[in-house]
Specification:
The chain has 177 residues and is an all-alpha fold. It folds into two domains: 58 residues, no CATH class; 117 residues, no CATH class. 72% of the residues lie in helices and 0% in strands. It has eleven helices and no strands. Helix 4 packs antiparallel against helix 5, helix 7 runs antiparallel to helix 8 and helix 8 packs antiparallel against helix 9.
Length: 177
């Protein structure tokens, strides 16, 4: 990990709300380096353990929550930025651990921001796909089914990492209805 660069940033920008995010991104990369490339079954047990340890420390949600709160407070499109930031970090983290149980994200506020983005940018297939993926993760069947039929499938795949699919989401909500 490039700790010298991070330390230099922290010295030059003390109190920056982006500092913890940079550290998380660096730790996440360091976790993947320990894991190595290849399919899951090809990863050595030591690599998997290092990956899990480093990745968990990378995505300490307290730092993320502080960053998001500081960012949206200053931004005129607060709810939209709120939704974008949490969705981005959820995607970057491979949707693990679960952002809706381990952070202080509000699904109601995130959904509101995503729906506002969809009304502001009606041709934005990315926004709709993101809303659908996050609705699935948040367990919001009503939002999921509202947008499910009109989602661009390729765009859905582009905004969701491995481990979540339309088939999984469809099955999740069919069981609960």
């Amino acid at each position: 990990m490039h700790t010298r660069k991070l330390e230099a940033y922290e010295r030059n920008c003390p109190g920056s709300s982006f500092g913890p995010v940079l550290r998380a991104i660096a730790l996440h990369g360091w976790a993947w380096r320990a894991r190595g490339n290849g399919y899951s079954y090809q990863v050595e047990p030591e690599g998997r353990q290092l990956f899990d340890e480093r990745n968990k420390s990378a995505w300490a949600y307290q730092a993320l929550d502080s960053f998001v709160r500081a960012s949206v407070k200053k931004h005129p499109e607060g709810d939209q930025l709120y939704a974008r930031l949490y969705a981005y970090f959820d995607f970057q983290n491979g949707m693990n651990p679960d952002i809706f149980t381990e952070s202080s994200v509000s699904w109601h506020r995130m959904r509101s921001g995503l729906e506002l983005m969809m009304s502001t940018y009606p041709a934005g297939k990315h926004n709709q796909a993101t809303l659908l993926a996050e609705a699935c993760r948040a367990g919001d069947g009503a939002a999921y089914f509202k947008w499910r039929e009109s989602v661009d499938v390729a765009e859905f795949w582009a905004v969701t990492p491995n481990g979540i699919s339309l088939e999984i989401c469809d099955a999740r909500f069919r069981r609960s209805t």
